[in-house]
Amino acid sequence: PQVDSANAGRVLASDAAVFLKKSGLTDLVLGKIWDLADTDGKGILNKQEFFVALRLVACAQNGLDVSLSSLNLPVPPPRFTDTSSPLLLSGTASSDVPWAVKLEDKAKYDAIFDSLNPVNGLLSGDKVKPVLLNSKLPVDILGRVWELSDIDRDGMLDRDEFAVAMFLVYCALEKEPVPMSLPAALVPPSKRKPISVPAAMPLIPSSSSTKESHQSLPPVGILAAKTPLTQ
Question: Which CATH number fits domain 10-70: 3.30.70.100, 1.10.238.10, 3.30.230.10, 3.40.50.2300?
Fold first, then answer.
């Protein structure tokens, strides 16, 4: 009922897109989900097709492949960040999950990281690319690995993000599917946001994302203070 406002038993692409975006998945993944669900390509989903889309969202959120073969697998219901949705507040805080990268593996990944000459503890995409390509994995898989591991979306990987990238590459080499969205267990502890919101509080996703984009920029004051020294 939330999406089918006219109650016509079908959902238009535009309405569904707005709703599906709340799942937190990338547009690429949502496009794939839509293509699989909209079987006749009319840009409209009937009730059955919409349920297929929801199940595929749940598959992607739980690290399963987005394909019709995943539809029969048991998955928890999809999660949407919507203030009126009770689903959002159920489940454990992701900050409690132990990190999937084991200590001895982390040491290996750190050694590779250091060998690539990081600058200020960061590796640019150009430095990471040869390592990824070296795995001989398909380019689309490597693109997804990069997208998932660059958690703060700054085009660079720090030590922890690089470990996530390596972990995903090794998973893919073991023929395990690379998830469509980063499972909570794979998010490095340094990147987890402490969840201090009491359960009764509605979470407002938009304000937190705008804050993040500001944080990644250095404060202008510092830049201005530096310039006279260099001259």
Answer: 1.10.238.10
